[in-house]
Amino acid sequence: MPAKRSILLFVDDASVLSSLEFSLSLSGFAVADGSSADPSTAAALVFDQACRGDGLAMLEALRTSGCKAPAVLLATNPTRALQRRVAAADATIVEKPLLGDELNRALDKVLDKQDTGDGVMLRKIDEDPLPGLPVGAEAYKRTGTFTEASIPAALLANHSTKEGAWGLIQVERGRLRYLVTDPRRPSSERVLTPHTPPGVVEPTIVHRVEPLGEVQFYIEFLRVVDTAAGHAPAQQEG
Q1: Contact by Cβ (8 Å): 199, 193
Q2: What is the pLDDT of residues 90-108, one digit of tens each?
């Protein structure tokens, strides 16, 4: 069964592949190169139309073989003919060049639709939230489980979540050092274990993690629900 946030990328250009892996991992996705992975292990697939001359043809072949994973096609100035093929392959087009978080939003949308069939299923955090976590924060997605051997390089380097996206670093086994390095906050570090509260990640605040030997952890993403409207504002998606 595929992990809920696992993404396979089918991209020939090594620099583009590396850039996409970095940006998607910052948003909580577990990302891998699709050229050497089994598509059945992924929650979603991303194809560059330039991949092997016709990325959509690769998806069409997978559809013929029975693959039903949600898919996104990256294309420049897609023609009507290409758009019809994308629709027939039950995929979503994201136009290049990528100027913002269009790909992240497209993946969130197709995965949320797959998970719930109608919008996002939010898990409510305890009414008495963790220190530093705002009242009304609700979890809406999580990464796969990382170990000391599989931590994405982006998590080991200084990075941050987007505006409105909170995080909880949940350690299941071992020890993980969590460092806040943002100049807007006092420098701090904590060692997280299964017996300590999770590490609270503030939106846009720069931080990183370091494994202290063997470790197993995941990151849960949260947003503050607009209680008056009964939903999370769109701009707060992580």
Answers
A1: no
A2: 899 999 888 777 888 888 8
